[in-house]
Amino acid sequence: MKNSSSIQHVSDTAIWVASYRALESRRTDALFHDPLAEVLTADRGQEISESMKSTERYSYWSVILRTRIIDDLLMKYLSQGPKTVINLGAGLDTRPYRLNLSSDVHWIEVDFPAVIEFKNEKLKDQKPRCHLERIALDLSSKIERQKLLAELNQRVESAIVLTEGVLPYLTEEMVAELASDLKSCSHFHHWIIEYYAPELYRRFRSQGFKKLLGNSPFQFFPKDWFLFFKNLGWQQKEIRYLYDEGENLNRKFPLPKIFALLMLFSSKAKLAQRLRLQAYLILERSPAKSKI
User: Fold this and answer.
1) What's the pTM?
2) What is the CATH number of domain 54-195+225-285?
3) Which phi and psi (to 5°) does residue 134 adopt?
4) Of 62, 64, 11, which is closest to residue 40 (Cα–Cα)?
5) Domain boundaries of the chain, sorted by first residue
6) Digit-coded pLDDT (tens) for 64-106
7) Comparing C-alpha atoms, which of 15, 35, 42, 217 is closest to residue 115?
8) How far apart are CA 101 and CA 83, in angstroms?
9) pLDDT tens-digit profile of 191-202?
């Protein structure tokens, strides 16, 4: 059966996400401005976003808030000392061009060779605000990935690793391997990842959602998201729920009708608890266990 989705490869999801950033940037009340998103999505952005219309209301909201949350987290932690960001599966991210970064920040992007080639061509006339390095690598290649991470660990003193929108497309085994690889790099002190509540898993596993994502379905469904990473040496340092950020930034959660009805019978606190379904968080290395 022919796949009707416009998502033919996981790298296509980067175009989908960037098309929402371009749309947000046109708003008078934009939470951020990403003028280069338009440049990067001009060829296929509309095609892909049109194919995702059925989920656009929530997807747009979540992409915009996750972008703002990660912006804020990065700026906060970069101001505290670390000067290196390692963006694994960077996609069409343009933060090195649009964030107010100091020139001594070293930003490293890693992604598929085709993605890196595309960005290099499209952004060749643009000047980043920091030292930007792009590395072409298929991160699913375990040996090559481990080799690269070991090399980067030798080069940096303290790094924040970012895997925005990457983990959901990996299996639990693949995420565990990546977490272990990063833990083995002693200079990688923090790691920014997403969080999805188990209540969303049924939706992600549904045939309708799988059809939308085509050849790039979600595969990461740990029983306990936080415990999964804790067991691999990474503990939660800070978490920001999209629902709470939306309330603070006047971007309300796009409530389905059923939840709108529930609001009539639930307190605001109980409703918030139910809707804290997605977040972005900073993990830090768990302290080494003392030997007895």
Assistant:
1) 0.89
2) 3.40.50.150
3) -115, 135
4) 11
5) 54-195+225-285
6) 999 999 999 999 999 998 899 999 999 999 999 999 999 999 9
7) 15
8) 10
9) 999 999 999 999
